[in-house]
């Protein structure tokens, strides 16, 4: 890239023009003109799950003991988990399928990086888009929970930033992983990692049904921390241990951002 | 059969064979195409049932038994109750994969249906070939599913093996109308994402799969009544653990599923013929 101006050499300034908002703006325009209905409809998925499991299955299960030993109704147990899952799904789909398409087919990033935008601008811009979508779903779902009486505490208000934190973690890491993908079929492996995480991260029943070894494995996975964090907030069982979950995501975000930026630089600016 | 092609038969002969065996050629083509994503098919065919069985049949079942005792759901273990539903859902999942984007691709992005039609195959042969292929894929997937479910001890009667055929019938009853719809689409404006979100997902959640349909408010039970998945799951429960059900209701299940599959099939063939002969 011999045309790059000398002021962009070295440090963060070589990676960013501080203009991630133009990437966001472009994304919003593209959504508005093409698939906003698809985006909006994503809100319904966790609601369907909540109605099916919470109301239908809930009457079989009755009350559930959460990780702190409190008895809570089944619907109130799974609702926060579904919220965390929808944050993960939204972020992953935005940062994998959409990014994959833009990277491999529409060559969007090559165009962006040929301008003054740097890889960090692109990464942050794409992640911000994923977060906007996550924020939209989280607001809607928290309102549904409120209407159904599933927010058991005022702490539930903090579930909103918690969901954004979860989405940020998955989006930043997901984009880095996507950069290694070359075909649509490889993308199926992402689904293959997400499905067990969705099913086993104490989403539908407490972790205590598993033997200790499996519990340990699940506790190492990011979604479990997200589920525990959101569940603690909406049910009001809050304590200093929740900072561990927050820390987990902060580390994940930092690693993901470094990783993604390096990959974008290696792919397009080397 | 493919040997005839390589031997460069007389055009008239090649044409006659193509017309005669058209359906099988289309099926064969699709089976070969499957090799492109063979590992995904194998991994999902084995992995998905195992995951769902552990999650719901073992994990959730533990919780339900803890809270409500043995035989809390429909008088049997939760694993036994949920297994036929998972089997039938697997067929519906294959149908929703194979009868959406693949069909649009055949008309639009990689318009192989037009090529086949020029080969010359009749439109109905193309439709039959695709449906036959999907039925084969469903049978293999559900066969593996059934073997795993049986290994978990979740099948109480030998008649339970009929569940594979029932699941395939249910998958076709959902799939052929979907194929007709897909064949009628000329532009991709996210319709398939909508079908997944507002038909496939609610259908799998509200068809009496994870819990009996009667558990839902009456206002939502109609979803099950019109859902092919509910009809196939109920039938599969009868064969798997002898769920008690009036005979007339079992007959209704079969008639409804066959009727849906047949109507969808005819519609798909008509729409395809109209589109290819334009």
TrEMBL record, chain B:
Residues that span the membrane, as ranges: 37-64, 76-95, 131-155, 161-183, 195-213, 248-268
Keywords noted in UniProt: Antibiotic resistance, Cell membrane, Membrane, Transmembrane, Transmembrane helix, Transport
Primary location recorded for the protein, binned into one broad class: membrane
Matching PROSITE patterns: ABC_TM2
InterPro entries, per the entry: ABC2_TM, ABC2_TM_bact-type, ABC_2_transport, Nod_factor_ABC_transporter
Keyword Protein biosynthesis assigned: no
Domain ABC transmembrane type-2, first and last residues per copy: 40-275
Cellular compartments annotated: Cell membrane; Membrane
Gene Ontology MF terms: ABC-type transporter activity
Cellular component annotations (GO), alphabetically ordered: ATP-binding cassette (ABC) transporter complex
Transport in keyword set: yes
Biological process (GO), any one: response to antibiotic
A Pfam family the protein falls into: ABC2_membrane
Membrane topology qualifier: Multi-pass membrane protein
Protein family according to the UniProt entry: Belongs to the ABC-2 integral membrane protein family.
Entry protein name: Transport permease protein
Organism for this UniProt entry: Labedella gwakjiensis
